[in-house]
Amino acid sequence: MYFDGTFTVNVDKGRSFQMVQHNRYGIETELFWKGLAEGWETESISIWMELCKEAHVILDIGAAEGLYALVSKCLRPASRVLAFEPFALPSAELRGNISLNGYDIEVHEVALSDFSGEASFYATLESSNEGSLIPSPCNPGSRVAQRVRVATLADIIEREGLERVDLIKVDVEGAEPEVLGGMGPYLERFRPSIIVEILNDDVGRRVQERVEGLDYLYFDVNDDLRKGPKGIRRVPEIRKSVCLNYLLIQRPVASSLGIA
């Protein structure tokens, strides 16, 4: 059952934020009916919430309506949160959700990759929250393209004067290796905790190539009971996720979470 209007998302210990539903199925519908603990990407969000508590600089890449960014700012108001969403419609919804809560989340209407310039960004008419610089993940029957600005994470880090990056979510429908590759030397320097979508084995292998030698541990995250018991499972290599996401973290961080 869909609806139009504002609703509250409860986080923990009396903390909450608001979002706007736009009368269509999506993340907002699941959150309204099931809440944060039972709705969208429950295990990934739970891990993200723990990691937010000690994070000073947080990047939500492929932010869509801004769920991960909003959770970050709600839990850690003093953190610097940057949200990246190049597609016009979800970017407008993201800005609306930020304004609704009075948050100081920084919105960058730019796609991230391993090059700078312009490119075609592909999305579907039915789901404006799913898009990529790669056309293949989208349904060809309803694919639309929009020219967008493209930057590298190294560009952003230098332009914004970021002296650290602690936590990153990357959900860009198959272009995740290019996003991490575009971080350049800052990936090794900062070694942030990363929640990254891995839709197939090729993406997994290429993401692993970007982080190999940097002492990351790999955890496959299952957010869907239809795929088996929910939770995370440490694995020796990155391949297609049992659900959607992987958690990549340094061993000390894993120890602090009790999962090393």
UniProtKB/TrEMBL annotation:
Domain Methyltransferase FkbM: 60-199
InterPro entries (UniProt xref): FkbM_mtfrase, SAM-dependent_MTase, SAM-dependent_MTases_sf
Entry-linked NCBIfam families: fkbM_fam
Protein name per Swiss-Prot or TrEMBL: Methyltransferase FkbM domain-containing protein
Organism of this sequence: Luteimonas vadosa
